[in-house]
Specification:
The protein is an alpha+beta fold and 209 residues long. Among the domains are: 3-76, no CATH class; 98-135, no CATH class. It has helices at residues 65-76, 137-208, and strands spanning 3-6, 12-15, 23-25, 32-34, 98-102, 108-112, 119-121, 128-130.
Length: 209
């Protein structure tokens, strides 16, 4: 025969006397509590989940005796800490690096690094060859990129040298022009003085004659 009881929040529930002492969740508020023993039901044998009675002559538990039991059960149940660190899922393992090495007939094979320097047979043409890193497409691409970068650096170096040389040549030309101008300016007074001396000598000769 079923009986009615209340959860700690006062919601009216119904259960069977055989369920007394069991921990349940209220379907309305979700609170965990122990089902109290019915007031008119005979005493039940002791259990780990409900109150134990020494003899059937003892009075039945009070109406709200289940509240204390529910509180004890909640304290025993570990509460979920919202600030507890969340374990992140482990990252998937990294994919192994593969090289694309062609066989002597041009058939390309995907080769892991641990198979380098081994003699293999091409699955397409059965040609035997050695897996070498320098024959892979990735190695050749990196080598071409490195050579291109080297050429660019060399070109920039020569361009800088050419600019420096042009600046030096320009400074040298400017210096030569300046020296020529200053040299011709200094020579003019000397030439005029010599001409005056020649004219004076002629006059003296003419006066003596």
């Amino acid at each position: 025969m079923s009986f009615q009881f209340q959860c700690p929040q006062g919601h009216l529930l119904e259960g069977d006397p055989s369920q007394a002492g069991q921990a349940v969740h209220c379907p309305t508020c979700g609170m965990l509590f122990l089902i109290p023993a019915p007031l008119t039901a005979p005493a039940q044998p002791a259990s780990s989940f409900g109150p134990a009675f020494d003899s059937p002559n003892e009075p039945a538990p009070g109406r709200f005796a289940h509240l204390a039991a529910a509180t004890t059960a909640e304290e025993a149940t570990p509460s979920s800490d919202p600030q507890a660190p969340v374990m992140e899922a482990p990252e998937p393992p990294a994919e192994p690096e593969l090289l694309h090495i062609p066989c002597p007939n041009g058939h390309e094979l995907e080769t892991p690094l641990d198979m380098l320097d081994q003699e293999v047979l091409c699955p397409t043409c059965n040609a035997q060859f050695r897996l070498r890193k320098k024959d892979s497409r990735e190695y050749k691409r990196k080598k071409a990129e490195a050579e291109q970068i080297k050429e660019i650096k060399t070109g920039n170096l020569w361009f800088s040298i050419a600019i420096v040389a042009a600046v030096l040549v320009g400074l040298l030309v400017v210096g030569l022009v300046a020296m020529t101008i200053f040299g011709s300016t200094k020579g003019l007074p000397t030439k005029g003085k010599k001409t005056a001396n020649v004219l004076e000598s002629r006059r003296l000769l003419e006066s003596r004659l």
